[in-house]
Write a structure and sequence with these properties.
With 448 residues, this protein is α/β, with parallel strands linked by helices. The chain has helices at residues 15-26, 41-49, 61-64, 81-89, 96-102, 117-130, 145-151, 163-167, 194-202, 221-229, 277-292, 297-306, 334-342, 365-371, 383-389, 402-412, 434-446, and strands at residues 7-11, 30-35, 53-56, 69-72, 93-94, 107-112, 135-139, 156-160, 176-179, 213-217, 235-240, 248-251, 255-260, 263-268, 315-320, 323-327, 348-352, 372-378, 395-399, 418-421. The chain has a 9-stranded mixed β-sheet with strand order 7-8-6-9-10-11-12-13-14, covered by helices on one side. The chain has a 6-stranded mixed β-sheet with strand order 15-16-20-17-18-19, with helices on both faces. α14 (365-371) links the parallel β17 (348-352) and β18. α6 packs across α12. It is globular, with a radius of gyration of 22 Å. The termini are far apart.
Length: 448
């Protein structure tokens, strides 16, 4: 895209905003960064060193509305007065991923889904890296995609994409697209309409051609029914735990099979680095993508065996007086919490709560009855959780900090029990992010 001294305004000076500013400067744009909150000193320094004009703790409307193009942080909702003014002016709004895509000549492997996308992204990246490919990691994980396009040269990028990022992507094309699953999430941002959220996820397919690939979960009824209505020429590669797929991937109770390029990779599911049905699905998706870029079956097999999972996802923290503490702070929706509870094998004190995104807790009732001995609510407004579980779990207490939650959980758990932080909610009422929530939980456990 030609800069021609045009003005690019960037809303939000986090990792993605600062990265976009660096790339824009390198490509000859005039750049103005505006953040309604404070900006980290390290980011201020970075913007200054690249000669980028920025403001913090305010939005100067006349400067923002003078934009020829605008990049917004995925976290800014459309319903804000600021966004409504920008839309009314007719300014084109894109995501950092879209902008970086204008200048990237690499192959893009893109992963989205309600759950499992981070694990699948990291697993995919691990396999490509292990195979010796020149690969970058970006999107919702790793460094800013735009910054890497500006400062590095990779042949491949593995990109984790949220529905919010996909909302503001128009010309970007995924060479390989992966959709892990679709369950209700972020419905507060989609007018509580599931079909709006589903459409956002399916934007990962836009601009794909007959030379590209779509890897998807064939056991997910929402995906398969949406796919029937979707016109695409891309090559479809399903994975399933119910029906054998060729080409594609399949796993039964014992074996995992990946059929790509007329070759079959088989391995025991007991050899997979991560346990549980959802991780078998993640392994299938990552393994198919790796075989599409012609990584040898022995390297794929080895990488599926030696991968180490991401922080804040079913992360073992410590054992204190026989009580096991597990950090699953990344579980910000019902489905993620369901997977966490389903995999628990000990009586569990469950720490849950935060910013509710339109959650339907009834999906967790059966697991709560079977596995949960007490609930610790960690949020500012816990009424919905208390109402939902008061007849299912005998003990429910409220905490207003990670320290308090851990202290209550420690008192409520017995020897050989587990304490699970799997909030099913966003973190922004008490914490700056799910990472911050997970770090504070771990710190509190270490202080016991």
């Amino acid at each position: 895209m030609e800069a021609q001294n045009r003005l690019l305004v960037i809303l939000g000076a986090g990792e993605s905003g600062v990265g976009a500013a660096i790339l824009a400067k390198a490509k000859g744009w005039r750049v103005f960064v505006s953040d309604g909150a404070s900006i980290k000193p390290s980011f201020q320094e970075e913007l200054g060193s690249h000669g980028v004009e920025f403001e913090a703790e305010q939005h100067t409307m006349d400067k923002i509305l003078a934009a020829d193009l605008l990049i917004k942080s995925p976290g800014i909702p459309e319903k804000t007065a600021l966004m409504q003014a920008i839309r009314a002016k007719g300014i084109k709004v894109i995501s950092e991923i879209e902008f970086a895509g204008y200048y990237s000549s690499a192959k893009h492997i893109c992963i989205t889904g309600s759950n499992g996308k981070t694990t699948t992204t990291m697993w995919c990246y691990h396999i490509l890296k292990k195979a010796g490919l020149n690969v970058g990691l970006a999107g919702n994980v790793g460094q800013s995609f735009a910054k890497q396009v500006a400062t590095a040269h990779y042949d491949y990028y593995v990109l984790e994409l949220s529905s919010f990022q996909l909302d503001d992507m128009y010309d970007f094309r995924a060479d390989i697209a992966i959709l892990t699953n679709i369950t209700p999430d972020h419905l507060d941002r989609y007018n509580y309409q599931m079909e709006n959220y589903v459409r956002a996820k399916f934007r990962i397919l836009q601009n794909q051609t007959a030379a590209d690939f779509f890897i998807y979960n064939a056991d997910d009824a929402t995906i398969t029914s949406q796919l029937k209505q979707f016109q695409t020429t891309t090559q479809l590669l399903p994975f399933s735990m119910n029906v054998a797929q060729n080409p594609g991937g399949f796993a039964d109770q014992k074996q995992l099979y990946i059929n790509i390029n007329k070759q079959q990779l088989t391995m025991s599911i007991h050899e997979l680095a991560l346990k549980g049905k959802h991780n078998t699905q993640n392994a299938l998706a990552a393994g198919i993508a790796a075989r599409l870029v012609e990584i040898r079956t022995d390297i794929v097999r080895e990488s599926l065996q030696d991968f180490v999972n991401v922080e804040h996802r079913m992360e073992f923290v410590a054992k204190v007086n026989g009580i096991e503490f597990i950090n699953d702070s990344k579980a910000t929706n019902i489905n993620a919490a369901w997977f966490a509870l389903e995999s628990m094998e000990k009586p569990t004190v469950w720490i849950v709560g935060g910013v509710d995104k339109g959650n339907d807790y009834s999906e967790l009732f059966e697991l709560a009855t079977q596995k949960v001995k007490a609930i610790v609510c960690l949020g500012l407004d816990n009424q919905k959780i208390i109402e939902a579980f008061k007849d299912k779990v005998e003990v429910i207490v409220e905490a207003k900090s990670a320290n308090e939650a851990v202290s209550f959980a420690y008192q409520l758990a017995g020897k050989d029990d587990a304490v699970l932080l799997s909030p099913a909610c966003a973190s922004f009422d008490l914490f700056s992010s799910y990472e911050d929530r997970g770090q504070q939980f771990k710190q509190a456990v270490r202080m016991l």
